[in-house]
Amino acid sequence: MLEVKDLHVTVEGQTILKGLSLTIKAGEVHAIMGPNGAGKSTLSAVIAGKDGYEVTQGSITFQGQDVLEMEIEERAQAGLLLGFQYPVEIPGVKNIYLLKAALNAQRAARGQEEVPAPEFMKLVKDKLGEMKMDASFLQRAVNEGFSGGEKKRNEILQMLVLQPKLAMLDEIDSGLDIDAMKVVADGVNSLRAEDRGILLVTHYQRLLDYIVPDRVHVLVDGRIAKSGDAELAKQLESRGYDWVVEETAA
Amino acid sequence: MSEQTFLDSLARRSAKRDRHGPEPSWIAARRQAGAARFEALGFPTRRDEAWKYTDVRAIANGEFALAEDADFSQTVAATLTLPIDAYRLTFVDGVYAPALSQLEGLPQGVQLVPLSQALADNHEAVGGPLGRLTGVEFSPFSALNTAFMEEGAVLRLAPGCVVDKPLVVQFLSRSGAQPVMCHPRLLVEAGARSQATLIEHHIGEEDAANFTNLVAELILERGAILDHYKLQEAPLGDLHVASIHAEQARDSRYTSYNLNLGGGLVRNDLISDLNGQGAVANFYGLFYGQGRQHIDNHTVANHNAPLTFSNENYKGILDDRARGVFNGRVVVKRDSQKIEGFQSNANLLLSDRAEIDAKPELEIYADDVKCSHGTTTGQLDEEAIFALRTRGIDQQTARGLLTLAFAGEVLDQVKLDAIAERVELAVAGKLPERFNLAGLVEAAAALDEQ
């Protein structure tokens, strides 16, 4: 589904990713962990198409398409969706507008008709219920004045409505209390499907108690230094990252 | 000489009026003063500082008749009238239209009558306040209005009277063989602690090309609260000049919502005299210009007393070759200490050929004051555009959503939901097609109602 090969990325002249390779198949949940500054957020930012990241080497393909050649919105329309670590506040743009415009755009790109209003409303209300969000959220501006937890829930809500093929969640657990984390984790778990990949980027193992990954990768200094199953995350929890860093250096 | 056309028209009107017998002497005297003042000044030109960016030759060179009747199709009027539960006074090309008005059930203490009737009932009661705030000195247009004045709306609120529904004063502009002009007056006397919402609504038939020259005087006694909507939806051929002057006693609150979508040439002067401690003036404005529309708003907050507050937020969106002018002045008199005056203006240009001239002005002659002002013309938030694009929304739609949101920042202040929604829909409909917003806002509004 997603294939990242030998990816090198520089930001403002500094090389952050130095040959990262990663393959995610449909139905899999991958977690990328690593110490601060290892380049975790850079990977998802590059895949989403954020400005200021220069790919100097390597490739990203998604379902056979060259992601780096696609416009930002084309990536999302193709089903590649990023949940932000710090969701942007968009004053004045109501959540309902964003959800409707986004869903319409995705459907249009796939040659499908717009969802009829009643169907759309039912879909959105169901998903709101899953995220334990009140319907009044729809009339509020996107993330404006939302608490940290509300912003993260809103990211997951968008995922639930848009049903991406690959959901990338960048530090979706940061700033969440335990109750909010459970809601967010439940939302992510409900996204798990045979035809969908999920990529979690996280610093802490805590999230992985709720969303058990198939594969765990440790990112050190711009490369994947170690990969394993969910057990690896537990080791990192008890032993920290230093041993992986030392192993890599050795 | 173009002024002469107006003076000739005035002479013909006077002769005709005289056949019905003499007017009260104060009115005749003011007409004369108005005519003399107008003759002396002539129409303003671009050399006048206050008219530097606004060319009124389309008015000066026009030939406008005076409407003789208020005939208007009930069916068409119904489509133009705001669909809200309100008391309503309607004028067609400036002529009172009782058949299109609805004044039944006005609560005790509220008087909303056409000026002609107020004059017939008791002209002396009108003569005191009328012209006190906006006399013939204010501008050539106020002089011209005074010379021609015949009709308009008089609203009187008894002390403590709270009006249960909005009061709409509706001006319908007809399309016809010859353009017409009208010089309406609005006189509001809001008694102490009274409270009302006044909606001044300008709208008309699509092909109309008339000239409206309005003078509004709003007197707010102690503690009075007046929300004044000016919803400008006149046809794009219409020319519109207005002077709106509020006088505020202690603890009164005047809020102006100046929502300008229509009119080919629009110039508003909005002035508030904050004369008593605790008085608050809010100026909210949103203007959207397209085609060759020209929209000019001049506002002044005169802080004549200590502990007075003014707050202004104007936003403009200009497309095609439209032109906007914003001039906001905050004046703090000597010894007007502890005042607060905030002003902000932001504009978006959607086309290379659109233009905005924005000028905030602060004149402060006291030292213990809190004032700020700022104007930006500009740019949409690129980070927000990126965020929307990562959801699959294309760049143009993202820009459209953010442009709509930009207008929404003013509409958020609007208390009447029906008006906020109407204007939002209108803006969404006017935004260029490339923004792909058609249907989105309607759909969202429909969902909202479920």
Task: Write up what this structure looks like.
The complex is a heterodimer of chains A (250) and B (450). With 250 residues, chain A is α/β, with parallel strands linked by helices. Chain A contains nine helices and twelve strands. In chain A, the strands form three sheets. Chain A has a six-stranded mixed β-sheet, with helices on both faces. Chain A has a four-stranded antiparallel β-sheet with strand order 2-1-4-5. In chain A, strands 7-8 form a two-stranded antiparallel sheet. In chain A, a hairpin with a 2-residue loop joins strand 4 and strand 5. The longest helix of chain A has 15 residues, at 95-109. Chain A starts with a strand and ends with a helix. The relative contact order of chain A is 0.18. The mean pLDDT of chain A is 91. Chain B has 450 residues and is an alpha/beta fold. Chain B is built from ten helices and 21 strands. In chain B, the strands form two sheets. In chain B, strands 1, 4, 5, 7, 8, 10, 12, 14, 16, 18 and 20 form an eleven-stranded mixed β-sheet that branches. In chain B, strands 3-2-6-9-11-13-15-17-19-21 form a ten-stranded mixed β-sheet, covered by helices on one side. Chain B is globular. The model of chain B has no long low-confidence stretch (mean pLDDT 94). Classes of the chains: A alpha/beta (250), B alpha/beta (450). At the A-B interface, helix 2, strand 7, helix 3, helix 4 and strand 8 of A face helix 7, helix 8 and helix 10 of B.
